[in-house]
Amino acid sequence: MHAQPPITAYVALGANLGDARAAVRAALGALGALPQTRLVAASPLYRSAPVDAGGPDYVNAVAALQTRLAAPDLLAALHAIEHAAGRERPHRHAPRTLDLDLLLHGDTRMSSAHLTLPHPRMRERAFVLRPLADIAPHLVTPQDLARVAGQRIEKIDEPKKGAGLATGP
After folding, report:
1. Which member of 96, 123, 125, 130 is catalytic?
2. CATH, range 7-61+72-115+132-157
3. What is the pTM of this model?
């Protein structure tokens, strides 16, 4: 039996409670520590206004992973990272200590009660598309960016140099 080759998965990270920058950076480290997974790229950090919610601005990023985990297993691992960061889910769009969304998992297409791939709203959110364009420009079209041009978002931080990460594809 042969091991499956790794696939590329993209994860959106966001936080708007507590030290949001630290939470996103810690989550990047946790993603790189997942079994059968390697963090291969991380976007700069961005600040964005909440969408369909109140509360403070979010800190956002997108990470690229090489993983052998199946999509449902990767989602479970993302939920475990959120839980370890103190994530609670009192209601939809509630402020978050950490939010991790699986955007893409290779060419996987699925729709279940727990996971839809590709992520159904990723092309509607500047806080996903702008950082995704930084690390995987081939996945974001000019039309995608034009659709979200009215959403407030600004780059606030570059990835740390020397962290062993590529900053592009």
Report:
1. 96
2. 3.30.70.560
3. 0.88
